Structure formats: C-alpha cells, structure tokens
C-alpha cells in the first residue's frame, strides 16, 4: 500500500485515537453578532455574486471577477496582494495580527460552453462563451463574506488571530491552489475553511479523486486530401487512433478510474490533411500513484498512435491534484453550526422556478437534499469529482462544506446549475455558507484545543513518512489552457 493509501486508511485510526477536542462554543450573543454581520452584508454579497455570474470569465482570465472580489475586501480593510505566484488573477487578502492563521478559499472561474440565462428553461446567452456551472460566483462571494465577518469579530472581541483569504483562479482545470501549495503559500496556515455550491446542505467530509490532465499535440504533414492524400500525414488520425487505444485501455484499469477527453483541435477543413490536431485528457482515481501509472499508459497510447500514423506527438502537462484528505474534527464543528443555523425556505416565486427547473432535469439525480434540511454527518464518504482543494488538504487541516445553492437533483457542470447560480436561490445558499464558515472560524480562533485536535488527525492521516510532491512537478501554471487552437 502506497503512502497516500496508508494516510487515507489512517483517518479512522486518527479519529478514534485523537484526544477529544475541548470545545469553546461561542456565546449566543457572539453567534448572533456574526450572523447579523453577514445578514447586513448579504445585499452586497448577492450583488457581488451576480456581477461575477455576469462576467462568466474562464480560468486564468478572471480579471473582472478577481478585481471585484478584491474591491470588497479592500473596502473592508484587508491588505491585498495581487498577481500572486505568477498568476495575474490570483491574490491573497489578510487581516488581523498574530494568533492562529485561518485561511478561506475563493474561486471565481466559469466553465466554457455553458452560457445560460437565469431561467428555468434552456436559454443560452447569445455571444457569451461561458457560464457558472459550478457556482464559483457564489463560492468566492460567500468566502469573502465569511472573511469580512471574521475580521469584524476579531476586532470586536480583541482575539488574536489572522484571517487570510486566498483568491484562487482556474479551479476548473488550471489548478491554481496546487502552485500555491507547492510554492509555500500555505506553510504558516493552521486551518483552511472551504465550501462548494450543491443541491443540499452538508458538512460531511469526502475523499475526492486525484487527477492528472494534459494535452496531446499531434503534428503531421498537410496535403490536398483528394489530389495528393499519399503525401500527407494526418495529425487527426493520430488523435483518433490514440482515443481508440485509450478506450481499449479502460478495460484494464482499477474499478474507480475515470478517463475522459475532448478533441480541442481537429483540423481546419476536410479537403486539407490536418497538419495539427490536439486532444485534452483527464485521468482520475482516488490514489495519485494509480493516476500517475495510468497517465503513463495513456502517454504510451499516444506514442503508439504517432508511430502508426507517421506523425509526431508532444505532451503538455496541464494540471494534477491530490485526492482530498478529509478532516472529521473540523467537519463535526461545522456540522454543529450548520445544524444550529438550519436550512432555508423558498419564496413562492422560487418554488415556481424550482418546479419548472426540476421538470428540465435529466433522469438519474440523487434523491433527497433540498434547502430546508441538513444531511446527516457521515464519515468515510467518497466523492466522484476532483478539486485542487485536495493539495491544500495535504498541506493544512482542511474543511469543505456544501450548501443548497441549486435546485434538488441538479448536477454540477450543467446549464441548470448555471441558472440557479444566478438566482436568489443561489444567494440564499451563499449566505448560509458564509455564516457556517464564519461561525466555525470564530470557534477555532477561540479554541486552540480544537485546532490541535484537527492537526493531530491531519498528521495521522498523512502518515509519518508523507512528503508532499506536486503532481505537476516544477512547471509554471498553464495560463493559456482554455485558449484552444
């Protein structure tokens, strides 16, 4: 068993063996002040989320979105460092002094090909490339709200501590957090708090999939496809034969593996033998060592396709993230606050919208969920997606919760998620997330024993022999990864 699997298997041992955290619950008056601060901020946070939803900027091109988030933080008195780690749209905002350092994560990139109006029926926005199909307009805005509320609480109570918000672009493929972890930007963080939009309220902590992604560029020889086909070597043939080889590979990989691809360049027109063609691949599994092994086999398939077609192939690594390392100590604290807050209800107009949207959902969605309840807290859960929060979770004890920003049964990366992320339903979930994160952060600032317990679980989960090495090696961020040829 490799070190990462040993670490994951050690989580249960860590949970059982760690000394119980000595809670320092917030007084009701303190909690009410924090939630009241966020309620007063909610119109500004909703406006912030709506602006970013309208900008709909893809990874590493989120100039307007990043600037808008920074503006809110600067107005609240945060010190903001921009262009962090060679990424123009990455930033770090800090407030407070001394004490524990508690980080919050903000994302704000949209997904290409998913522009959609905030309507319950399919209405693409003409001329717009992208849409917030993962709700990152809400994600970044709620984290900003929680950070501002924590700053106010630190000042009001005189509690020593530093709240730091990381503006992390390009979660959808560019994986900015990986570079920030690799380059030491989280080395002094005691705890990291994160959240993600969803169709239910939950503080259960999940192990997400590790992933490696990259582009395979085939280069051949152009020629007239009818008059002189024998003089050409089709780069597109290379791409297609690679895809066939990888599809046969799927039978011979571990059960939990996911491999998916798209052709980002297939040539220009049929009467020209394509001189250049490109595919973009993701390989996922819970164990990063398995991902690395399968990625090597996918690369061999590309090399074989190039040999078979008389073309050349080059591989450009785009990203790579670890699976998430759950921290149940933090999860239980957040779960308590989420349950105290409860869910929220829809207005009559929101109920009508939700009913129409549900009628447009494809079959197969998860049962249950919804805005007015909190899911049971479950340990040992595995998630079917990937996130660059994974690398953060191997660098600091990390929490990630979810709130019901979408209509029950909605999946991420769908037009229905884009729609709900631009509505009052999304904004209500934003406020609930901001309150939960702020209350959790304030309790942790107040209770060194809880931070110590989260750290003990974290260290046991990683294992004593763990040494972090980024899956993307020493390469710089792929700032142009969304700029398909």
Automatic annotation (TrEMBL):
Task: Identify the Pfam families for this entry.
Answer: M20_dimer (PF07687), Peptidase_M20 (PF01546)
Q: Which InterPro entries match?
A: Amidohydrolase (IPR017439), Aminobenzoyl-glu_utiliz_pB (IPR017145), Bact_exopeptidase_dim_dom (IPR036264), Peptidase_M20 (IPR002933), Peptidase_M20/M20A_hydrolases (IPR052030), Peptidase_M20_dimer (IPR011650)
Q: Where is the signal peptide?
A: 1-23
Residues of the region (Disordered) are 360-392
Q: Which GO terms describe its cellular component?
A: cytoplasm
Is Signal tagged as a keyword? yes
**What protein name is recorded for this chain?**
p-aminobenzoyl-glutamate hydrolase subunit B
Which GO biological process entries does UniProt record here? folic acid catabolic process
Q: Which PANTHER family match?
A: PEPTIDASE M20 (PTHR30575), XAA-ARG DIPEPTIDASE (PTHR30575:SF0)
GO molecular function, one example? dipeptidase activity
Task: List residues of the Peptidase M20 dimerisation domain.
Answer: 212-305
* EC number, UniProt record: 3.5.1.-
Organism the protein comes from = Edaphosphingomonas haloaromaticamans
Q: Which UniProt keywords apply?
A: Hydrolase, Signal
> NCBIfam families given for it?
amidohydrolases (TIGR01891)
């Amino acid at each position: 068993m490799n070190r990462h699997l040993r670490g994951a298997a050690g989580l249960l041992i860590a949970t059982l063996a760690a000394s119980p955290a000595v809670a320092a619950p917030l007084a009701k008056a303190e909690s009410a002040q924090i939630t009241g601060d966020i309620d007063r901020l909610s119109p500004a946070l909703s406006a912030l989320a709506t602006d970013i939803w309208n900008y709909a900027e893809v990874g590493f091109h989120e100039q307007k979105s990043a600037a808008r988030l920074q503006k809110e933080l600067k107005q609240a008195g945060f010190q903001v460092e921009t262009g962090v780690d060679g990424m123009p749209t990455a930033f770090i905002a800090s407030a407070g002094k001394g004490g524990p350092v508690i980080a919050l994560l903000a994302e704000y990139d949209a997904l290409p090909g998913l522009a959609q109006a905030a309507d319950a029926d399919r209405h693409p926005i003409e001329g717009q490339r992208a849409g917030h199909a993962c709700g990152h307009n809400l994600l970044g805005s709620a984290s900003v709200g929680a950070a501002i509320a924590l700053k106010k609480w630190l000042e009001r109570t005189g509690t020593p501590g530093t709240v730091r918000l990381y503006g992390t672009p390009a979660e959808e493929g560019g994986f900015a957090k990986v570079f920030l972890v690799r380059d030491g930007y989280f080395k002094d963080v005691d705890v990291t708090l994160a959240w993600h939009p969803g169709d239910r309220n939950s503080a259960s902590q999940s192990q997400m999939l590790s992933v490696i992604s990259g582009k395979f560029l085939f280069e051949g020889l152009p020629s007239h496809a009818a008059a002189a086909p024998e003089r050409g070597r089709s780069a597109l043939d290379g791409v297609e034969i690679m895809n066939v080889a990888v599809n046969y590979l799927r039978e011979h990989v571990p059960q939990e593996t996911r491999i998916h691809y798209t052709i980002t360049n297939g040539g220009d027109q049929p009467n020209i033998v394509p001189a250049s063609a490109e595919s973009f691949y993701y390989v996922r599994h819970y164990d990063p060592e398995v991902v690395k092994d399968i990625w090597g086999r996918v690369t061999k398939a590309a090399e074989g396709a190039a040999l078979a077609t008389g073309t050349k192939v080059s591989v450009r690594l785009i990203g790579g993230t670890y699976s998430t390392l759950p921290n149940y100590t933090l999860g239980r604290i957040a779960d308590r606050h989420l349950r105290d807050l409860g869910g929220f209800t829809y207005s009559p107009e929101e109920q009508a919208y939700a009913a129409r949207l549900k009628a447009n959902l494809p079959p197969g969605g998860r049962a249950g969920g919804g805005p007015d309840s909190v899911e049971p807290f479950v340990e040992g859960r595995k998630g079917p997606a990937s996130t660059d929060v994974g690398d953060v979770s191997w660098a600091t004890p990390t929490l990630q919760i979810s709130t019901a920003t979408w209509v029950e049964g909605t999946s991420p990366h769908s037009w229905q998620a884009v729609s709900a992320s631009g509505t009052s339903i999304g904004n209500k979930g934003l406020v609930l997330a901001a309150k939960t994160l702020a209350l959790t952060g304030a309790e942790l600032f107040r209770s060194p024993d809880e931070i110590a317990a989260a750290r003990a679980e974290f260290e046991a989960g990683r294992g004593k022999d763990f040494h972090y090495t980024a899956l993307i090696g020493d390469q710089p961020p792929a700032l142009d990864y969304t700029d398909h040829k």
